[in-house]
Amino acid sequence: MKITDDSPPVLTALDRPNSYIGRSVPRPNLQRLTQGRGLYVSDVTLPRMAHVAYVRSPHAHARIVNIVTEAAKKTPGVIAAVIGAELAKVMTPWVGVLTHLKGLKSAPQAPLAVERACWQGEAVCAVVARTRAEAEDACELVEVRYEELPAVTDPEIALDAKTPVIHASLGDNLCFERKLDVGAVDKAFAESDAVVEATFRFGRHTGVTTEPRAVVADWNEGEQRMTVYHGTQAPHMMQNLFAKHLGIAEHQVRVLTKDVGGSFGIKVHTYADEMATVALSKLLKRPVKFVADRIESFVTDIHARDHRIKAKIGVSKDGTITAFEIDDLTGIGPYSVYPRTSGIEANQIVNLVGGPYNCPNYRAQARVVFQNKNVMCQYRAVGHPIAVAVTEGLVDLAAAKIGMDPLELRRRNLIPDDAYPTQSASGLKFELLSHHEALAHLDSMMNYAGLRAEQQKLRGKGVYRGIGFASFIEVTNPSAAFYGVGGARITAMDGATVKLDAQGAIIVHTGVTEQGQGAEAVVAQCVASSFGVRVEKVRVITGDTDNTPYGGGTWASRAAGIGGEAAWQAGKALRANVLAVAASILQAKPDDLDIRNGLVVDKDKGTERLPLDELARIAYFRPDTLPPGFQAELMATRHYVPRAWPFAFTNGIQGSYLEVDIETGFVKLLKHWCVEDCGTIINPQLVDEQIRGGVVQGIGAALFEHCLYDERGQLLNGNMADYLVPMAVEMPDIECGHVVSPTADSELGAKGAGEAGTAGAPGSVMNAINDALRPLGAQPLTDMPFTPDKILRALGKV
Amino acid sequence: MKPAPFAYKKVRTLKEAVALLAKHKDNARLLAGGQSLIATLNMRLSAPALLIDINGIRGLDGITKKGKFVEVGALARHAQVERSDVIARYAPLIALAMPHIGHPAIRNRGSFGGSIAFADPAAELPACLLALGGEVDIASAKGKRKVKADAFFKGLFETALRPHELVTAIRIPVADKNTRVGFAELARRHGDYAMVGLAASARANGKGLTDVRLAYFGVGDTPIRVKTAEAALADGNIDAAVSALDLEPHDDVQATAKLKKHLAGVLLRRVAAQLLETRP
Asked: Hey, of A136, A289, A725, which one would you mutate to test binding to chain B, going by the most B CBs within 10 A of its CB?
């Protein structure tokens, strides 16, 4: 794979001597991880630690008549077999609602099902034993008598009067509904030269992490403290939730999150089996470990993207987009997931459709309904891939209808680069985007005219290639507007504490977490740059609520933009503190000094005045030699939270080039391009890898991944053989390009880059497939994933 | 995903292995490469009382030309077969199929005999064996016997092997200058079990073909020969061969029966083209 380093020159404000901003610094954790010395929760072993396995409901909806655990309890190695009613005495239930999603409702969810199981895979009984194998042996002896209840599986009929209501207390199966009507939509459609309608479907899928969900909970009765080793993205959020539902104070809970083997949004939620594991530790007064296996992961890790959207676009002959309209319906399982809710994806779709374009007329409806399938919630690029595919699918269909080149139609409607600040029809506020520059960059990167010529030539030989585009915007660096204002105790802030050790090296504690994405590298680069040492001298510590600054963690593409800024500011603050010490030793003015490459130097000439290790020696061991009354402060903390904008929006455009075998319906991906604008690029390689990884997950949605359920709510392909995760052989080369529009809200100017790839890939692949098949008169494909079967049906061959 | 408890015995000789099989029969499973077995154990889809590990038996992994046959020992790993000059020269169909079997890690462990004995209807090697008209060498405490490929595959994961027997080698007729082979499969990801696959062999006869053997996989309970289509292809009529396909596949999670039938026709045309290609 070619790594295109077209990163911009470093920016003046950040261009300090030995600056690492804009440089592809290798991750500091690389050697540790590749030598197998990572510390994942799966690796944690504690004295007296027991293992839990869960008995899970085989039914999508069933009343639990009774559970007999006697035989299981007599099995060798078994410590306890616990049912929902017993665990409910240790931990209170939760309800996944947010007040700013008006009307959103859900039912209380317990750590273990009590009385009723609401999806296939919900845990109904816990068996704790010396080993996981013994626990699984005993699970087979737990007798659960179920009375099967009708399963609500099809969202289309979830709201019908004759459909059973899953939670009687809620009155109906509607979780959340949102309507939006901006401008004069009906008038705009009436006056359009062409109106195109289509129904888009998105297959339910999930984020398959390399390391499954894992937790080790250790209740210390003597200390009255709960220590939880947790593979999570948000340690402080989980600290709050564990405390709240155990009925103890937050300071009695310590969450430790060291290495995490991938998250993608999967590990930022409350899982009943993880909560149950914590409750079991409190109940049994000993460490308890739970590591989900693959089969459990498929039926319990959150799913996402199961949306049906009826959509409409109006366009005039000159290519002006006149209006967008969507009607979204999504089934999210039996509970809104706590604490971020399962209304966010639909809400995002309403917000994001039409986002890149200048179009004042927009109507949207979204309905989120309950059903008896595994829960759905936020997965990488929440709502974006859907909103982008719908918008861009409509744009391509409109272009075809009026006979205009799809890139030209976009050019005519994308918000002009000099129009900022501005906002979308749905009210999203944009500080500074670069749609046109990105489009022009993509046009030349992919040699669009050349590809069109090649496509035309090959059609004559019966080879059907397609080119597809997707412009997109991406929500990053969320302020408190995302969750805080809705009443969830999920901070939008992050902090960094930086200290000088006694030999002049730097130790950073940060609130953001490392999920394998390279947050440690980015934090180290920021501190090394703003303080003035080589990056090898910076050690980053993450994921410990007892020791790291309070912070949100890693989600919504916030770690670099928010955590990076806090680290940058903390490095600056410590530099000022250290220069005060240096000035007092050197009898100079702090303003005349700087720290470069681990040395205190004259700011003007750069001549060496004092090495940091000598400064540290004096400050720590001979403070008696410093002037009276002077106290060295060799530790500094800074926090950062975006305030000026609800979100730092980023933008970009993707292009897909592929070939469809019209006999087999197989799609061969030939090449993929992504030009994106995440503001200041701290580490070009990490940004490109985020983009590439995101594109691959988006391609998974477009072509491969699908949680297939039958009408009784049984997952049919919940294993790694039948659920098709995209693999390297099928992936195209992915070329990345960048435009840089920094946010002025922070000194670094960095926005997020974690979700841009996922946001745009499905739509661009869909458009490329339809572009390939258009000359054959195929029905446009709008039902992801695009399997050979669907493609051949569109061609009328099966 | 931990297996139910089982006893484990690592044997060093064929004699030991067949003695244990004779004693435990259906309650025992042979462990060779373990690429299918271990997954079914971990998912508790099977729970044998005893695993007989045959990996320590010497001399079961040879790949040699013996007269008119290439003999592949049951314990020969896929990776070993993939890199074998004997296979490349004398069993070109096997060489064509090899890269489609799983991934390198699977091919490093998975055994040739294991694939034949397990008889997954979507696997490549059983279909190749059938297309080549090979035979299976079987041993038990009572002695040895051979079964021809046409008689070996009986039903879904069911073969002519009896519970007390094990496969010791697979014998494949040696290819000569008139041998023609073809292979194609359609899997959504490389290395997955195919939605449909076709292994074929024939003998060149002037510009035409004789002795056409077409073995489909992934479309039924066993690898399946399509004899009417074979005859049509021998007559040089590809269209007739495609319309003569009488497969009756079932729907599965990757493909409907209808799709599989359509793809079977596409594969037949592609494989027929391979068979008819003139070789230098």
From this structure: A136
